[in-house]
Amino acid sequence: MKIPFGDLSRQYKKYKQEFDSIITSVFEKGSFILGENLSDFENNFAAYLGIKNAIGVANGTEAIFLALKALDIGEGDEVITVANTAVPTISAIDSSGAKPVFIDILENSYNMNPALIEDKINHKTKAIIPVHLYGSPCEMDSIMQIANKHGLKVIEDCAQAHGAKYKGKKVGTFGDIAAFSFYPSKNLGANGDGGMVVTDDNELAEKVRLLRNYGFKDRYNSILRGYNSRLDEIQAALLNFKLTKLDEWNMTRIKIAQKYINGLKDTPLILPQLNLNINNNFDNFSVFHLFVVRCKEQRSKLIGYLLKEGITVLIHYPIPVHLQPAYNFLGYSSGDLPITEKLSQEILSIPIYPELEDKEIDYIIDKVRKFYS
Asked: Among 11, 190, 225, 231, which residue's CB has the most CB atoms within a 10 Å radius?
């Protein structure tokens, strides 16, 4: 059996009629930029989160970048975040002119350790960017309490956490502003690039709208030094349809995660926490963008074995950003973030997506168990 890590063609085959009809409709209308499909999707995404404003942009990286620019964060400022994230989080901070300042993570959740934030705050600190990694929410109460105490802005990176909840409230609605990615493999993924900035602050939202489109207040009248970062009509129309499926897809991911946890609980692997009952209306839950296990020993051997058995697995992420060559200028070295660095040597991502078949899940569980038998 051959099991890819992800297979977006399965989604297309399942919804081919709907996708083809949506694309045809956009072409027939002949409007491709900043049209009614984008407005509809922005309104529906805002309603889904329970927030006032959603602004479609070109991608998730630019969503973070534009959020920073809208908050007037840039040259000479510092932003506290984590290094066990995708490079785009850090690229966005760097592109704004601000300096990323890294703190370590909690070993049980892989997310930002709020207890380490205050040690890094100084007069240059302007914001905190918590990353809801792998679809699991950060401890937002603690983070917001610290931010409010020190007058800092909070920009949530929700690129992997569409629909995840913390204490009954969807992520992206805690901070001053939040960024989502619609990269194709996300829980809510476009058929190309896409992103969204969300906020309850109307003035901040208007500033992002100006920034994403050259600062145009109206046609040819630029009142702000802006950029070109717009979510196009085709992607918005497809995403608007996919949004109606998001909760269903997330629940499928959670059920697959439950199967993995039940099937692999007797192995040496350290498994993610579920913290929910899938039959109840739960308050706190991950949407399992990724299913990440920890192998304290023999990770390379396990990877080789699974690949040989036709199961594609990946590491998210093998090199923490503070140790990547592009960010040497920040002055970090090995040992600075011990938990982050330790986990990067142990983590392994196993396939999880809504179209994964039961027989494939069973096959993966069987092969992992055989490796350890």
From this structure: 231
